[in-house]
Amino acid sequence: MVNEYSTVDMGENNNCNYFSAGELPPPALYFMMSLLFFWSGLFWVIHSEEEQGSTPVYKIHYLMAVLVFLKSLSLMFHSINYHFIEKRGEHVEAWAILYYIAHLLRGAVLFITIVLIGTGWTFIKHILSDKDKKIFMIVIPLQVLANVAQIITDESDQSDAEFRTWHNIFFFVDLLCCGAILFPIVWSIRHLHEASATDGKAAINLRKLKLFRQFYIMIVCYIYFTRIIVDLLQMTVVFQYAWLDEMFREMATYVFFVLTGYKFRPVSSHPYFTVPDDEEYDDVEVVTESGLTASVHRVKPHNRSAQSNTITIIEGNDDERENLIAKRESSHEYD
């Protein structure tokens, strides 16, 4: 008589690890990126200390260094956590907790730093307005909630009924946070645009205005790439290359950190630190631009030594103001 039931023992062997083909590179990737962020943070600290004698190093520069080191720690703990998952099939709870703590801190400090730079804190002003404080009260709790939702998503199986709900909550809240951090940058751009035409320091304010516009474009590109493009890449590539989305996300984050550090580095030639002395200006020259040179009104100085110390207030678009400033500066090279 033939037995109707038989027992079959099956085992999976993937080169003595528990990862699929698409999950093999991430541990090494996280470790290498951790070292890259660490050495970059160390370089930033050394550079800031070297420039401290000739250029003011603000608190925001040290906060940027803390952010880079938190990012490095987060990636290091993530790499160790993945290593134990690879070898044991489950993570060690202690390393997982350390990673989640570093991840939460890194996310909060990242958004705090972006908002502080966007509001011009310490660069343009030394205190936060009520409007800025409201942005902090909205953005930071939302970002913490987004990070908590991501942690719950990572710890849940994709087959769980709550997985899709938490995943959608994380994606929606994260986009809200990214949109909210753009508001202070827009306000700073508007403030500098108005100041460049009214307060007599047009050249300096125009350089600051251009810098904030570049920072705004960087933020938009970073958000668009890491939140949308990378997710689309994850859904389209075959499973052997599932790790590419993490690689592009970390590389984009590193490029964003490097560009932000370069734009706001503490150097003496930086437009943030080139602030003219108001006492040097004795008289005011008003130039109204409806065409290239529509009307010029000069206030006669009290003495000859003050003739070169004039303040220019220029109206018109940014290109016209910059062209006129460049012509005026070149005309005084041979004075």
TrEMBL record:
One of its GO terms (cellular component) is membrane. Residues 27-268 form the GOST seven transmembrane domain. The keyword Iron does not apply. Its main location: membrane. It comes from the Eukaryota. Keywords: Membrane, Signal, Transmembrane, Transmembrane helix. The chain crosses the membrane at residues 28-46, 58-77, 97-123, 135-153, 165-187, 215-241. InterPro entries: GOST_TM, GPR107/GPR108-like. It is found in: Membrane. It is a multi-pass membrane protein. This is GOST seven transmembrane domain-containing protein. It comes from Drosophila mojavensis. The lineage of its organism: Eukaryota, Metazoa, Ecdysozoa, Arthropoda, Hexapoda.
